[in-house]
Amino acid sequence: xxxxxxxxxxxxxxxxxxxxxxxxxxxxxxxxxxxxxxxxxxxxxxxxxxxxxxxxxxxxxxxxxxxxxxxxxxxxxxxxxxxxxxxxxxxxxxxxxxxxxxxxxxxxxxxxxxxxxxxxxxxxxxxxxxxxxxxxxxxxxxxxxxxxxxxxxxxxxxxxxxxxxxxxxxxxxxxxxxxxxxxxxxxxxxxxxxxxxxxxxxxxxxxxxxxxxxxxxxxxxxxxxxxxxxxxxxxxxxxxxxxxxxxxxxxxxxxxxxxxxxxxxxxxxxxxxxxxxxxxxx
Length: 282
Ligand SMILES: [Zn+2]
Known about the structure:
Layout: E1 2-3, E2 7-8, E3 21-30, E4 36-44, E5 63-68, E6 73-76, E7 80-83, H1 88-103, H2 109-143, E8 146-150, H3 169-186, E9 189-193, E10 217-219, E11 226-228, H4 229-244, H5 255-259, E12 267-269, H6 271-277
Helix pairs in contact: 1-2, 2-3, 2-6
This protein binds zinc ion.
């Protein structure tokens, strides 16, 4: 690239620039790792994006509700759990490097060098998460015509018993942002729904059940419906998604059909499965 006042500079692309885009801006930045980056701001033409499926064509076979887990996974209304990444080793390494840094003399050459090592360990984690979220959202957008997730911006959920996952909200927000982007890219509806009470509400009868954070099962005293806690929440998200789109619950598919996938039949998918079946980032 040629920059005025700087001249020609060799750059290495992390991935090719997408087609049908116009470069609006390029920014130089020196990271804490000591490396230089060029970031491009691109503009796309919306008319090139695929059309999203007609709302009338949506049903429980091509749409999915997603429960963002308290622990590190997502749960889908059609019976899939996808593990989040196991980053224990990476976090352990980061802690080790941070301990080393605390033993260096502040301001010394060794200190500066170690500080770059810490920055690299942090960057590794950030990149691994982002890469995984790219693959997961691409897989979801290609797999379904409509994806429903909880709206994390609703303040009400802070009072909910799901408080434990607030820490994870930043990661989920990034996930939803990517999901919306992929939805536009692949022609998939992505809709955020009211999150209040998705855990307590019974997906079959709509009654409220008291549920503490450690209770992993949904067992409805009113209608007797029993399933996994997160499966019930994902089904509620699915139902709310249809209502949000003004479609109502598809009459051809009674709740029982969806809820037929009970806990025992839930198909667990590892992170590597998504990575293997997912295609490279656009
Ligand atoms: Zn019920």
